[in-house]
Amino acid sequence: MGVRESALDGVTVSSQAADLPLTLSDRLLAWRDRIQGSERFQRWAASFPLTRPIALARSRALFDLTAGFVYTQTLTACVEIGLFEFLADTPRTLAEVASHANLPLEETGRLLRAAMALKLVQGRSHKRFGNGPLGAPMIGNTAVARLIEHNALLYNDLSNPVELLRSAGNRNRQVLDAFPYTSVSNPESFNRSVVEEYSRLMADTVEPIARELLDTYSLDGVTSLLDVGGGEGSFCAAVAARYLNIKLGLFDLPAVIEGARPRLEKMGFEGRVTCYGGNFHADALPEGHQVITLLRVLLDHDDASVLKLLRTVRPAVAKGGRVLIVEPFAGVSGAEVVGDVYFGFYLRAMGRGRARTVGELRALLSQAGFSSVRVVKTRYPVYAGMLVAEP
Asked: What is the pTM of this model?
């Protein structure tokens, strides 16, 4: 999957735009829209042998957009009752699933039929059920399960999407309440109870990103690494497990670091990671690290905050060092629904931030004083695009 620049990149809203002349492409697309919007054409396209497959595919795609919320809730129900783990070892009968889920037989059948249609569940011998091709990867997948559970907050915030887009304030949003640091000016004053839930969510969901980074980008020869905004240290722990000689540092809010220390100690890595408590919007970072990592950090902030952070990061990088940025990018060909749809609305509910294209990140890095920026291809650009920047 490649990256593309968005048609919105660098666009300034202008009242004069409507007066600009139409290009040939504009006219052809307008003609296409008139034709495809015709009920007569739609009936013909659905009947003519050469166009029928296209018409049916587009009809199905439109219905999927209409019914997507039901698909989401079907998956959520399967996660909530622990269906994928229950089906992991051996096929189960309808009665066994009903007993496990504490649901009536008829309603269990309804759920299983829906899950089968979505390829989450698959029929097995003797009228039993097992995991389907999309259900099997969910077995023991804590990161995705936690995200699905967390999405219940976003689901509620999106009950009135137009109001979400119109509202100027950041009040009465469940996603916003889950990330309190986005709405206060002094998050470094938080106590542990305020940050505990979102810190654990971030720790649980960063693990696949950590694996992707370490599988894709070699840290051989690196002597020191600082993970900025690294939460409770999940990425530092992953690095420590693979590289025995890297000096590791972790920088996050003091209340977050309070949870990182016991987590790292439990994993046997406390002595390997130096923890720094502070606010990267206001405090200088410890200097001299060969690599500084920013995992899912920039997309949570507006452009001004990102630029300020990158300017704070630059002097902390040792001579000849680099910064690794790993997060979902906007404008990834074939994965637009992740950066442009999911994170577009998620970050609106959160109150700030946005997924950015590679071009937008390059521009911010250039303004912050980084002279070299390159894209590193990853296996799963859907959730983990990667940039390497050098001063």
From this structure: 0.79
